[in-house]
Target: Membrane protein
Amino acid sequence: MIEMSKVLITLGIVLLVVGVSLRFFGKLPGDIFVKKGNVSFYFPIVTCIIISIILSLIFSIIGRK
Model:
């Protein structure tokens, strides 16, 4: 049960850091934004890659015993 609490706390901290950094930095270079007429499409590919790397590092650190 203690491991689950560590995971939830870590996930909360990661989401907080990601939210704050997105608030200050906005869209990163490499994110895809297409606007045609009144339709717009935004896919934050670079943001997704960075979040994936950060989460992989955090979970690999948590997974070590």
